[in-house]
Design goal:
Blueprint (H helix, E strand, L loop, with lengths): L6 E4 L2 E3 L15 H18 L1 H17 L8 H10 L4 H12 L3 H7 L3 H17 L5 E8 L2 E3 L5 E2 L5 E3 L12 E8 L3 E2 L12 E3 L3 E11 L2 E11 L19
Parallel strand pairs: 2-4, 7-11
Antiparallel strand pairs: 1-2, 3-7, 5-10, 6-9, 8-9, 10-11
Helix pairs in contact: 1-2, 1-6, 2-3, 3-6
């Protein structure tokens, strides 16, 4: 689950940075206006993005079968979290999120997860408020990749990052990174996930962290990250429209 939004340094070495190509919209001040766009936008994306359409329909059916639980999320927001965790959709979605912020045009023309991005962002924000804006301290072992970071730098994951908080015991064969992450914008989504036991705290792409420790020894690395707040390049981008003033693409 921990597939970082980072710049590749070598085949199995990755660099943590600010992930500046990430689409990081927080939709501040435009939630209701954006929600009004969703019926038309979602219908368009269902036609252009079959994996999303299939995951959404499967998640919606499963959420409906659960009945109306006590939840701060709307049915659409809860369905978005469940769809994100369905059939590996998170991998394709996060790959798109990592590139969609290269330009407004890239987001508008080539990012066919606008509905999911909005609803997932809103879901994390609403859950965070409902839980009292708590912070989490998490350990996670990543096998197969050694991450590179510079102490004192500010970095972002640049995608919706899930950390289970369950440190894998022992050493990995080959390259390995032990992450020690203190997040204040991540939220526990296990209740809403397709397979709750496989998911933990989901961190949004716009949360920033200071690298407070970076120890490397051969193929092994220990990186400690501490939340410093948020940073977004984009806000309410869809509602700004394209060059003709039309927000539907």
């Amino acid at each position: 689950l921990l597939a970082m939004a980072v710049a590749a340094v070598a085949n199995d070495v990755e660099r943590l940075d600010m992930a500046r190509d990430s689409f990081d919209d927080r939709y501040e001040g435009c939630g209701p206006a954006m929600a009004e766009e969703l019926p038309v936008l979602n219908a368009s994306e269902f036609l252009k993005n079959q994996p999303f359409a299939q995951a959404w329909l499967k998640a919606a059916a499963k959420w409906q079968r659960r009945g109306p639980p006590e939840s701060p999320l709307s049915p659409e927001q809860a369905t978005a979290v469940m769809a994100f965790t369905t059939d590996g959709l998170h991998r394709e979605f996060n790959a798109a999120v990592r590139m969609a912020g290269r330009s407004a045009q890239q987001y508008r023309d080539n990012f066919h997860f606008k509905t999911l991005h909005f609803l997932l962002t809103q879901a994390l924000q609403k859950l965070r408020d409902a839980l009292g804006q708590k912070c989490y301290e998490l350990l996670e072992n990543v096998c197969g990749t050694r991450f590179v970071a510079k102490r004192g730098d500010t970095v972002r994951f640049g995608q919706f990052m899930s950390l289970t908080g369950r440190e894998t015991p022992g050493d990995c064969p080959g390259k390995q990174t032990l992450f020690h992450v203190y997040t204040c914008h991540g939220v526990d989504i296990a209740f809403f996930a397709q397979h709750g036991g496989d998911w933990g705290v989901l961190i949004p792409p716009y949360e920033t962290f200071q690298v407070v420790e970076d120890n490397e020894a051969g193929d092994k690395a220990v990186i400690q990250l501490h939340s410093t707040g948020t940073h977004s390049k984009y806000n309410c981008e869809w509602l700004k429209g394209d060059s003709t003033g039309d927000s539907l693409g």
